[in-house]
Amino acid sequence: MANSRFEYVKSFEQPDVLLPNTWIVVRIDGRGFHKLSDHYAFAKPNDRRALDLMNAAAVEVMKELPDLCIAYGVSDEFSFVFHPNCQLFERRNGKLVTTIVSTFTAHYIYNWSEFFPERPLLPPYLPSFDGRAVIYPNNRILRDYMSWRQVDCHINNLYNTTFWTMVLQGGMSNTDAEQELKGTVSADKNEILFKRFGINYNNELEIYKKGTVLYRQYELEEPKPTKAPADEESPVIESQQSRSQQDKIRKLRRKAQVVIDHVDIIKDEFWEKRPWILSGNPGKLPA
Amino acid sequence: MANSRFEYVKSFEQPDVLLPNTWIVVRIDGRGFHKLSDHYAFAKPNDRRALDLMNAAAVEVMKELPDLCIAYGVSDEFSFVFHPNCQLFERRNGKLVTTIVSTFTAHYIYNWSEFFPERPLLPPYLPSFDGRAVIYPNNRILRDYMSWRQVDCHINNLYNTTFWTMVLQGGMSNTDAEQELKGTVSADKNEILFKRFGINYNNELEIYKKGTVLYRQYELEEPKPTKAPADEESPVIESQQSRSQQDKIRKLRRKAQVVIDHVDIIKDEFWEKRPWILSGNPGKLPA
Amino acid sequence: MANSRFEYVKSFEQPDVLLPNTWIVVRIDGRGFHKLSDHYAFAKPNDRRALDLMNAAAVEVMKELPDLCIAYGVSDEFSFVFHPNCQLFERRNGKLVTTIVSTFTAHYIYNWSEFFPERPLLPPYLPSFDGRAVIYPNNRILRDYMSWRQVDCHINNLYNTTFWTMVLQGGMSNTDAEQELKGTVSADKNEILFKRFGINYNNELEIYKKGTVLYRQYELEEPKPTKAPADEESPVIESQQSRSQQDKIRKLRRKAQVVIDHVDIIKDEFWEKRPWILSGNPGKLPA
Amino acid sequence: MANSRFEYVKSFEQPDVLLPNTWIVVRIDGRGFHKLSDHYAFAKPNDRRALDLMNAAAVEVMKELPDLCIAYGVSDEFSFVFHPNCQLFERRNGKLVTTIVSTFTAHYIYNWSEFFPERPLLPPYLPSFDGRAVIYPNNRILRDYMSWRQVDCHINNLYNTTFWTMVLQGGMSNTDAEQELKGTVSADKNEILFKRFGINYNNELEIYKKGTVLYRQYELEEPKPTKAPADEESPVIESQQSRSQQDKIRKLRRKAQVVIDHVDIIKDEFWEKRPWILSGNPGKLPA
């Protein structure tokens, strides 16, 4: 065919398949959201509508990609997690990341007007997101990744809550507030909030303190005595799972509801009650 | 800080910097557009509004990323090209690809209602795109890449035009039309169009036959006697360009208008008259 | 300095760090050993001196690189295994592989005359080896890799033993022997050996049937009731191990003797009695 | 076959094919040669026998791999260069690098006794080498790489010659000589050599000042007026060269003698007179 003279350029495409049997985390981040949040006048330190919009878009991503087993969001970032036995797009890095970034963006833009009816989008201030994939070799490290993000959420939220309270309620300049907070530890910030403003940080909304975790809802299980974790017990020889098995599991996942939760994901309890997240095997649908 | 116990997970992020001094092409593709074009009743074989929407979104991408020097679109795909001396995002693969995919998606969704006022978007049928970056080591190969896409456009459009004319005007079934076209060459298809339907393929719209090329408009130049191409003449030691130089060039690029063209990009003429595309040096702004 | 004009070429070097917390296997293979073994008249189906030379070179590699925790050899290949917490050369792929390939080659060439005193090396027939690194995310898969090589050893050795017995003792042509063996299973080959030649395959030397496993010798331990495997129990945050700790462990490893063994490494027993291999923690030196 | 249960581990091997149409440079370096050169009492600042041994081993590598078009060596390092149209081992990074490192090591060890008859090798002091591959997108940058190494050779040799003359002839301590040379430029070092020791640096051996360049010898050509460089003129669609063509070219290359030269490779002259190096097309064999 006439095309063939140029087709050799395809040979420059390089494979980017992610290592088998590892957790894949795709984390997306808002691009230039500092400027954007000013432009659309997001509330400080947290804008509930903006977070709800992030969560709404993320739920749609979870629905469209049943291979995702959990997601965690805070501020303008969201981490989407594929199980080690995931075979979606043959585990091609670029395909996985761009699909998530694009799907998320589409829903974020589409749903904007529902969450910000009085602040219509106006180019050139259209929100967009970048993203990356990182792989983690076992459950422990995947959980440490999730903990890292939730600790980050806590640290940033405590800081931001204190800072903006000092500025908005205390009438301090940004610079003065920043200066005073330099070098303080958590206890100091709690004290500033409580003593000066009568605010008990513990009473802040869970969505601000814990961020948002999304997962498919099955019947909760009683934690069992610890046993060898799934990825050691039996090698998940995923490439040998038949396509029909994979399709069946995908259908089961689609049936489960995606829930929006704001709970501790650092301690064991969350994971022990929801063993389907780490095992990758769908649980029992609630009656 | 309390965070540090988990921060080690950052060490699992792997670098993905693209080889210096090579052309970077980011090609994006519509996900599941076959189904989508049915759902929103795109016209066959070409839907002008859909193409115009693709082009509108691509123009916005060009405007937001002045480092882009040319882009080429056909059907539901678009290729965006960064010059070998581009340093944007330190040439990180994931960052470049996801930024383009997300920005494109945002504008595509945002502009949809302007181009399809009578067909509002409705989840779960939200358009989205995936993408990939490929690098090409020299001008010749970059041009062969562009030629490859334009030849592909021609081949597909001739096929689709003939096929849909046979079906829509000739009343053939899809299967019969497909069967008859099997093994035909260009001349055969031209003849079918002309003899049976009185259609001269040459008179079809250029946007359908040639696809769309986007670039920044400077004053056209007279082709000069061939000389050593830019990437050989002087090694573009891009990392040694100062930031202020890069910023200056970026500003010059922002001033140029992004034009939408439907012309041959396979022959030399296009490139010789617009030397700024391959050289990476902004030309003279039109009066 | 005058040098700087050209130094930008260093920016083309790309990082190749292997994912943290994964097993690294470097497998090397003899290049063109089929031809080479003819030239130096290796005995068929196994040449004991050639295997002993392979093992001698591999022992030297183990001694020079205390980070190696186990190695397995068969025919003209050898697999060297680094523990998930290995930080040698910052886990750079190229550095790890070339160091092993070169060190192995050096000792192989140097020791040749000791094992083949009557067959001096003569260029252009100098032995050389290529190699590659592969990473495995957990203990189970690492053990499956090792099992894969040992099963391969068994399959090939049974075939070769039968083939060469048919040729050398049975007077068959290579082609006839090959033809007869086509499609046979293990039992068939055992029967041919036993019925036609009175050979009980089980009595063949262990080094031929099992290949060679190298490891550092500490006091064997009694298998304990299964517990959570090391890589789950505590995340090996290797980058946080201090240099001095790493150096101390390295010294302990150097003190242990490297043993040459020909035993089953597929079953659990081998690994349970030598827990230091999978844990990465040196055991107790024998009195 | 019984093997299949474990064979899935092969899926963890990741491709490492180098970008097509780019120069491949494999640079190898002696491991721990500082200590090694002390142990075997290499002469300071240059040991002629050690350099001759490096060159002898490198010549053998060039002979064994006709795909190599040029090599450059200095001190204990050697750079081997494959042409952009090289298809050897499908351009697999690991295979190319380990083959060169191992072949070089084999010949270095094998030839040692010829160059150092009075200093037999003795483990654990066996020489070994590590290596890496780097790709360069065009002729200009490849030449800049070569220039970088030769400038490095010059800078180091001038320093070392001055330093060791001050120590060995001038009776200075290492520390004092190092101290005095700190911050000096080339002219200063030339003056120290000339004024204090009557040494004209220009009269030093070319092998020390220029390093060693290896290439296949064809009839020298007269430099032609500059024309578009090979990699632009015609896209080298290497994958479309037939195997038989590649084999033919390989045979032609084997016939050419590999010469050992110590000349300037920074200026154009070297490359213009030997156009076969950059073009990849064998020249005319000398009568």
From TrEMBL, chains A, B, C, D:
<dbReference type="InterPro" id="IPR025845">
    <property type="entry name" value="Thg1_C_dom"/>
</dbReference>
<dbReference type="GO" id="GO:0005525">
    <property type="term" value="F:GTP binding"/>
</dbReference>
<dbReference type="InterPro" id="IPR007537">
    <property type="entry name" value="tRNAHis_GuaTrfase_Thg1"/>
</dbReference>
<dbReference type="GO" id="GO:0006400">
    <property type="term" value="P:tRNA modification"/>
</dbReference>
<keyword id="KW-0479">Metal-binding</keyword>
<keyword id="KW-0460">Magnesium</keyword>
<dbReference type="GO" id="GO:0008193">
    <property type="term" value="F:tRNA guanylyltransferase activity"/>
</dbReference>
<keyword id="KW-0548">Nucleotidyltransferase</keyword>
<dbReference type="InterPro" id="IPR024956">
    <property type="entry name" value="tRNAHis_GuaTrfase_cat"/>
</dbReference>
<keyword id="KW-0819">tRNA processing</keyword>
<dbReference type="Pfam" id="PF04446">
    <property type="entry name" value="Thg1"/>
</dbReference>
<dbReference type="GO" id="GO:0000287">
    <property type="term" value="F:magnesium ion binding"/>
</dbReference>
<feature type="binding site">
    <location>
        <position position="29"/>
    </location>
    <ligand>
        <name>Mg(2+) 1</name>
    </ligand>
</feature>
<feature type="binding site">
    <location>
        <position position="76"/>
    </location>
    <ligand>
        <name>Mg(2+) 2</name>
    </ligand>
</feature>
<feature type="binding site">
    <location>
        <position position="76"/>
    </location>
    <ligand>
        <name>Mg(2+) 1</name>
    </ligand>
</feature>
<keyword id="KW-0547">Nucleotide-binding</keyword>
<keyword id="KW-0808">Transferase</keyword>
<comment type="function">
    <text>Adds a GMP to the 5'-end of tRNA(His) after transcription and RNase P cleavage.</text>
</comment>
<dbReference type="InterPro" id="IPR038469">
    <property type="entry name" value="tRNAHis_GuaTrfase_Thg1_sf"/>
</dbReference>
<feature type="binding site">
    <location>
        <begin position="75"/>
        <end position="76"/>
    </location>
    <ligand>
        <name>GTP</name>
    </ligand>
</feature>
<feature type="domain" description="tRNAHis guanylyltransferase catalytic">
    <location>
        <begin position="6"/>
        <end position="137"/>
    </location>
</feature>
<dbReference type="Pfam" id="PF14413">
    <property type="entry name" value="Thg1C"/>
</dbReference>
<feature type="region of interest" description="Disordered">
    <location>
        <begin position="223"/>
        <end position="249"/>
    </location>
</feature>
<protein>
    <recommendedName>
        <fullName>tRNA(His) guanylyltransferase</fullName>
        <ecNumber>2.7.7.79</ecNumber>
    </recommendedName>
</protein>
<feature type="binding site">
    <location>
        <begin position="29"/>
        <end position="34"/>
    </location>
    <ligand>
        <name>GTP</name>
    </ligand>
</feature>
<feature type="domain" description="Thg1 C-terminal">
    <location>
        <begin position="141"/>
        <end position="267"/>
    </location>
</feature>
<keyword id="KW-0342">GTP-binding</keyword>
<feature type="binding site">
    <location>
        <position position="30"/>
    </location>
    <ligand>
        <name>Mg(2+) 1</name>
    </ligand>
</feature>
<comment type="similarity">
    <text>Belongs to the tRNA(His) guanylyltransferase family.</text>
</comment>
<feature type="binding site">
    <location>
        <position position="29"/>
    </location>
    <ligand>
        <name>Mg(2+) 2</name>
    </ligand>
</feature>
